[in-house]
Amino acid sequence: MTEFEKIRELAAQYREYTAENLGRLIRCKSLSLQEEQVQLELIRQMQKAGFDEVRMDGLGNVIGRIGSGSRILAFDAHMDTVDLGNREDWNYDPLCGTIENDHVLGRGTVDQKGGAAAFVTAGRILKELAWDKDLTIYFVGSVIEEDCDGLCWKYLVEEEGIKPDVVVVTEPTNLNIYRGHRGRMEMQVHFYGLSCHGSAPERGKNAIYMASKVALEIEKLNERLKDDPFLGKGSVTISEIVSKSPSLCAVADYARFHLDRRLTWGETKESAVAEINELIKGMKAKVEVLHYVERSFTGLSYGMEKYYPTWVIPEDHVMIRSGVDAFQKLFGKDPVVDKWTFSTNGVTINGLYGIPIIGFGPGNEVMAHAPNEKVPVDHLERASAFYAALAYVI
Label partner for 204 (CA 20 to 30 A): which of 16, 259, 325, 338? Predict the structure, then answer.
């Protein structure tokens, strides 16, 4: 029996184990900055699976290790989730973690605790098979991704000194292999007018009118943004607008709006800011790229600029070929190689640090952030097999 046949057999044998572990993770509500309970549960699962080392870093990321080789492979699964939303839209308790009709139910099953449950099983499989390649494998349950993509990996690289040779991002891919996604950034545009009494608006300069004129130009800008044959089109939209004035009987002397900018290949922070600066030329206005700083559940304050670079791994890259090879050996067919619609921790892993990535995870991304979120147990089984198999082909 080959290693890949043994892996398939063990993944099937541990099918219920994987699903039950996921159920336990789901029952730990874990919004960004509030992940402590789920992180302690993940530590317990890694220890029980026989990992060589399990620890929590200063930001709250859980790091499990197997092996001590010269090269480093890392798996990433963020453990925070978005909130539950309108409970009336759910057909079951969002935190039930129940196994029903061959699915695990609840918030975070797809986005994205399912990846963590699968890689815990992969670690158990590798330990049972006495895997001993010249490789160190880190299994990372990361934090704060929903609030600030990639912040956790900025901490791991810059503060923990962990810079893998390759990373597997276990966000949902519907068991396809993903190799990139658009980037994004958050900007505010500030407009400064001149207030006067509302009975004589001609004496002042209304900042709301200034902002409104630019808002219409941003709508047009969205239509002419760059397109890419693989990643698709860049986009920009105004997600919030606010204003201030001395009173409701006065001309507004300040306004601002918030821009959600999605960046396709070839678009950068600099190019996106330049586009907006062109629209506000001649106005008393400025563009600001926002900065994120918050305190994690460990008490540590940490942050980064809210610029999340676009990234793409070439389809012929050795890491993509390795993923295809592992998939073929396990399942006897070719995988679909594609991209994410949304953003992941890949924005720092590859976008900032240039570390090669392969994306592979259980669940369909259309379920992410949606009510009645659920993941097929079959996906969990196959993902755990794939993660273990990668340790033999990389």
Answer: 259
